[in-house]
Write the structure tokens for this entry.
Amino acid sequence: MQCKRSLLAAINRFTLSVFGLIFLFINTEAKTNDEAKFILIHLDAASSHYLLEEMEKGNLPNLQSYFDDENHIKYTITYFPSKTPTVISSLRIGDSVREANLPGWEWIIDNVEGTVVKTAGTFLRMILSTSRLSTTNILYGVPAFHWLAGPALVNTADYLKDYNILQFYWYNIDTQGHFNGEDAYRKEYADFDKHFGSLMNRLDDDVNIIIYSDHGMTFGEGVEIDTVLEELIGDDLKVYSYPSLYLKYQEKAEYYSWRIMNETAIDYTFFKSDENTLRGYHNDGTMIFNKNYEDLTIQYQYIGEDVLEYYSNGYNGEFLNEDEWLSLTHNFEYPLAPVLLYHYMENPGSGDIITLFDETKYHKTAYSSAGNHGGFTDTDMRSLLMAKGPDVSSLYGKNYYWLPNLFNDIQGIDFDRRPPRERHYFSSRYDFINNRTVTDYSMSPLYRIRYGATTYNSDFNKLSNYDSFDIWGKADLYRSYLTRLWIGTGIEISPDNIDPLFLVQYDIQIRKFVLQNTYSTNRRFQARLSYEATRWLAIESVNFTSIGLRFDF
């Protein structure tokens, strides 16, 4: 008994010294947290064409006021195929089209004898390639949960106190385009703009904002082509995932390319006719792309009609490198097509035939019933890129850009960086119902780990005479921009007993308000509501029966 009381007294003496340490750590943190800060917003399916139109109509006032003309690169060309998994999994690590880890929704790792990766596997790989905080952003893309995307986006301003690089994925525009068509797709831009305005008002001038898109969206005639191709090719078909088709016998690529173009609604087919040549068929002729592997340049030729209209716009049949093709074609109807198509066919996961619609059609599926993407016309390939901040000035004033270069060109972005630890804290509050003080101490040795103690004292004349205290440790299992889940264990020590405890804590954050819901085997349910007045000071109440302060450091 005496040993327990001595331990309780020691905890009280520790309390008296902790305040000095708090202010020491606060001062140190303020001096060292001077790294560049980035919020990177992936605006799924946002076309530069539609964005500019909505701006001109005055429907996007916050984006228009925040980004000047020099901050908006109007002709940003994305990956091919223009699919979300391809961009999300490749962009942050700087992979090119030929290196993309996820070349489509269904694909074959090695087309000779490799494994087929189905949609579920691609989806999982895509989600796991994002940052931990943004993994559940995909949930907000489901129409029933669209309303959560806005509060989550606005919360990023508060996460900058611990994270220097924040990634946010806004999928709602893409979902509306697929299911509900162009009008709903356009309206979703305004919804994003409203929440971006709320975020903008909460940011300091030193924060770098980059908004980019993975692809655009095509509306028009929806064509269901999958079953048609299965019937046409039969047993020779391994996998078809628009725009890529995988054959059992690769030597039949030319034969099936010709048949597909002539016997289906597909407008273009492409295949490798030899090691250095990519050939394409269409109703009015043939396209030929030749590659010079010595200087990595590509030449475009045609037989019949020049459907790309390159020759009528200044091209003369010369071999060009990637930058030269981008400079020439960024504002054409088929931007950067020779590079994108050729590089994609060099990807080990690409198919044997590329099948494509023109700008009047889209691939119709159960998911994409009103609009889709994946083609190579400007409606799909021209995405948006907007950037503002002290560390992204290298992007200012550009008229065109190739999206795969984005995070190779910007210095200071380390996607693997994590906070070294959680924030330590000390809190004390007065419990009106039980007429006692409750004091919490928490120290964090590592990111996502906390250890601490909670003391309960009802004798104000003898501060060392505690009723009991809990010693606990907990680990963070899950975190998003709105919620966090902890699980932990420990012991409760009272003058007469030592008992084990188990706890589960679920946090909900809306801007500077945090609600911590704690279920513990030794205490009644606690709903702790805190308001973070500053980076280091919060006002707290538990079950609305107590009031106190928390110091973070």
